[in-house]
Amino acid sequence: MPSLPVDDLAKTIESQGHDATVDRNPRLTIEPRRQDLDSLVSEAIGALTRRSVSQRYSELDVLGEGGMGVVRLGQQRSLERPVALKSLKSGLESPSARLKLLREAWITGKLEHPNIVPVHDLGIDERGEPRIVLKRIEGASWDSLFANADDVKRRFDASDLLDWNLRVLLEVAHALHFAHTRGIVHRDLKPENVMIGSFGEVYVVDWGLAVALEDDGTARLPLAKDALELAGTPSYMAPEQWGGSREVGVRTDVYLLGATLYEILVGAPPRDGRSLAELAAKSLVSPALPESVPEPLAQIVIAAMQPRVEDRLESAEAFRRALSTYLSRRSSIELARDAIQRVEQLEAMLSAREIDRVAIYQAFGAARFGFLEALRTWKDNEVARDGLTRAVRAMIDFELAHGDPLAAQALLADAGADPVLAQRVASAVDAHRQEQEELRATQRDYDPSLGRRTRWFVSVVFGTVWTIVPIGLYALQRADLVASTHLGHVVTNILLCIFGAGLFYWARESMTRTAINRGIVGVMTAAIIAQILVSVGCWIADIPTNLVLVLYFAVWTGVAGAAVATIEARLWPSMVVFGACFLAGTYAPEYRHLLASLGNAVLALNTTFLWSRLDEDLVEVRRRLGGEHGDGPRPR
Q1: How confident is the model at residue 618 (pLDDT cuts 50, 70, 90)?
Q2: In 479-591, which ranges are continuous DSSP H helix?
Q3: DSSP three-state, residue 122
Q4: Strands, E assignment, 272-373
Q5: CA dist., res. 589 & res. 592, Å (int)
Q6: Does residue 595 register a pLDDT over 70?
Q7: Which of 167, 178, 401, 452 sits between 20 and 30 A of 443, alpha carbons compared?
């Protein structure tokens, strides 16, 4: 509707003869002034003269009273059923009041709908005044119930008051939509004008201000196009109801539906004020709702209560569908809201100084479950989707910060399409895998079980050779068959080096497989080279040949000590024996060969004890020596 300045609205209200102040209550209905209605009322009353209600209905107790009318309990004599008899209060009879009552009967009689009180009959009483016979509703007005959770629970076993109120409003909207399809606009919808039956039945009542959208030719009903006077309940009224507008229509009732929803959500009508002009001015502004009101419901209220008619929801059915959609999604919305609180708790835990992983994952699990349930109920719940993404991203950040990118990767599927986050997780996973691979390689490198058999086999072969050869040399020299010379020492060491090189080449795969084996190869190579250097140095220095082998003991003492420090601490007996052999050799060099055999034998036994499992290794020796499978021995 075209916007009316506030001053113009005030003038319009005053021009209709209404007081500038609200002398009673802005929630009470204001009726339009009536023209001379004597002829219309007289004609209608005349048609009812032979239909006296008093003869067919007995009158019992008063059920309730309004501004001009009173409703009494009655009994239909022919059917013996209870009914409600509505008539004018004594002393308030006038053509205007009579016509209002008649029009309510005529309109309600046209609207046969489960949510509209059926009219059984229309007649006159003993005073000649019109009386409507209605279905008796055993219940209470909605305004006395919708804020009373205990009463609603007791009467209807409804523990969710908001859900109950919204479902009542759905039925109200359905009734209004039906009336609109029959060309009737209510104009005075409010909780007070809705009755709730004993079994939860919903009835829209008090159609006294209703207007017709089309002229049926009877002149009985006022037309919406002629509804130019102020009419309605100020606390709820749409802007076009304040007078001077020809836009009263279906969307006027839509506005009133929005105003009723506002009162359900806020607990009070949309507006209050000291004067009609003040209330009218407030109707020209879109309503503001508290932040506590669920956003979808706030949007429905705002869409229904737009000041401009053309900006509102187009029909009561559109309002009903919007409300029905919210109700179908409400459980999802509430699940998401509860889960958001869990996320806030989770974020507080993640930012705490002390981290409790169990509590963190419990909070995350509860939040994730809530969001997934919300999305299962309503797959397009953006609040739930965004909340799930928020929770997952917080956990991904947590896992990345605490060095568990694989856990972060497992969470990534619920994090939404975020290429930056996905790349960040992928980079962390790659780095983690590389680090783990390096760690496994290091563990393999220092795993004493790898290459153990080869180490044992090589040590047995070397130990055996080094144990036997010195004894043989000792025997040959005692028989004067071999003389001890510097050249002999050099040649012997060269042959030993060639033998060792061949043995290590044969076992190269296993002997280069781990750091321990590589260390042994390195130590052995260094020892043989040291022996060659000692032999050459003694030859150059013309040191007696009987002391060369003794000096080898010093070399092997150092070699064994290096092995104890870097490879295997349990080789210390070999180091001790070699040291003792050196000292003994310096005292009695003539026994040097026997001492060498002793030291080498101890070394062989020492390594055998460390690296062998005899039952397995003897089988392995036979296999290696026999060259099983036709492809030669396979070092491990």
Answers
A1: low
A2: 486-506, 508-511, 515-541, 548-566, 572-587
A3: strand
A4: none
A5: 5
A6: yes
A7: 401
* Domain CATH for 108: 3.30.200.20
Ramachandran angles phi, psi of 57, nearest 5°: -135, 135
Q: Are residues 278 and 424 in the same domain?
A: no
316-350 and 161-181 helices cross at what angle (nearest 10)?
160
Residues 65 and 148 in one domain: no
Least confident span in 80-84, 481-485, 573-577 = 481-485
Report the amino acid identity of residue 26: P
Q: For residues 14 and 50, state if they share a domain.
A: no
Q: Which tokens is 216 given? A: 């049926």
Instruction: Read off the pLDDT of residues 380-416 as tens digits, 9 standing for 90 and up.
Output: 898 999 999 899 888 888 888 888 888 777 777 776 6
Query: What is the rounded CA–CA span in Å between residue 271 and residue 34?
Result: 27
Please, what's the largest Cα pairwise distance for the chain?
164
165 and 296 in a single domain? The answer is yes
Across 154-176, average pLDDT: 95
The Cα 240–Cα 12 span in angstroms is 12
Range of the domain at 398: 331-444
Q: Examine residue 54 and state whether it is found in any structural domain, yes or no.
A: yes
Regarding whether 157 and 131 lie in a shared domain, the answer is no
Report d(CA 528, CA 541) in Å as an integer. 20
Residue among 384, 395, 396, 401 at smallest CA distance from 422: 396
